[in-house]
Amino acid sequence: MDPENLRLERADGVLTITLDQPGKKNALTRPMFLGLRDVFRELIADPDATRVVVITGAGGEFCSGADLSGGDDGVVPMHQLTWMRQVGEACAAFHAVPQPVIAKVVGVAAGAGANLALGCDLVVAADTARFSEIFSRRGLSIDFGGSWLLPRLVGLHKAKELALFADIVSAADAAAMGLVNRVLPVDEVDAFVDDWARRLAAGPPLALSMTKKLLNASSAATIEQALENEAMAQTVNFGTADTLEAMTAFIEKRDPVFRGR
User: Among 73, 136, 180, 191, which one is least packed by beta carbons within 10 Å?
Assistant: First the structure.
């Protein structure tokens, strides 16, 4: 069964996670945060079942952030710090997912929703999409990994501007800042993301996951550490059937078939 207000669809190695609370622009409730945490942990524990992940929202919106209405029926009350640590668990699991993750952003991506989108490996936005680190407008400080993520994406001073003013950023401006990979007309987004997901799903899973890990670790590594990490990853690759398949396919002038082995 799908977690509450989350739709999971699997096809050809691609898992599409749809945030499904359109009446509130897919605001994340406590059960949704916990459901995402559990889904991400499953992806970490069993990477063979899924090659690529796509995260999107229902009803023409991505995610308006955390649902602060207090209407999570059936959730046992807890201290706010305990709850925020559980939100942190969901975010940590999200950033530990080994598969490539694509955000398909149509409509608003604000607060935790913005950081969920921007934390994906690739971000494809409709030209009508808009982003905001909305927290300060709600009397809150930045969360869901935004304090770690934004300086790495846009530099410290631009990150402070985005977080302190909480302005709404258009898709075009987000692209100019390097926050998103592509901005497309809304009616072209689905086909484009499907193509990217298909291409990634056909790629070598182990090599892609290690490339993702190397790039994510780069900002905290010295050049010597980065080179050693690359050497270790490449040594693993040379011992896989996928690398042999790639070389064989090149010689035989055909497309390789990668199996993650």
Answer: 73
